[in-house]
Design brief:
seven-stranded antiparallel beta sheet, 179 residues, alpha+beta
Length: 179
């Protein structure tokens, strides 16, 4: 998407992030504008795998059953092993942003491929660093991008779902309007 407006929420648990996705869906938010990122955590003693067969996606791992619900709601999904994060599960438009960052080798000023992808959609570097830290501490990112009015509508729905943090990033502004 060419619009560089986004709302980003951080959730402490997978269940909270999943409930937020459901709330956004009930609120009429276009699921094609929604992305979610979380680590494939606690995989030391379990097989981790991922595959996509058309419209059916399967993830094996410690949180496989929990992640299964997201794959049916969101468009596009991937599993990347990114240095510093380990396995990262991504769903939604963010998959294309990460692939684009990798293809352009756009690793900006010490940012990871994920960080470069977030930066490419207008999220300021200082916020990118905060979101990367949240992922490293096993939290989940939920992003909605689109027009300013779509992002504000999504923020209004997200605020009521109890995120750890939520911030709106509008039109490549260097600072976010934190809630």
């Amino acid at each position: 998407m060419s619009e560089k407006n986004a709302v980003v929420a951080v959730y402490a648990t997978h269940a909270e992030a999943e409930e937020a996705v459901k709330e956004l869906q009930r609120g009429g938010i276009d699921m094609a504008s929604l992305s979610i990122v979380g680590r494939g955590t606690h995989t030391d003693e379990q097989v981790v795998g991922y595959y996509n067969t058309g419209d059916r996606v399967k993830y094996w791992g410690g949180a496989g059953a929990a992640w299964g619900g997201f794959w049916g709601l969101l468009f596009g999904s991937a599993l990347f092993a990114i240095p510093g994060f380990g396995p990262l599960l991504l769903a939604g438009p963010i998959v294309a942003w990460v692939v684009g960052a990798l293809e352009r080798a756009a690793l900006l000023g010490g940012l990871s491929a994920l960080g470069a992808a977030l930066y490419s959609i207008g999220i300021p570097k200082n916020s990118v660093v905060e979101y990367e830290l949240a992922l490293k501490t096993d939290q989940y990112l939920l992003l909605v991008n689109g027009s300013e009015s779509q992002v504000e509508k999504a923020r209004d729905a997200i605020v009521n779902t109890g995120p750890v943090t939520v911030a709106v990033h509008l039109n490549e502004q260097a600072a976010a309007l934190a809630i």
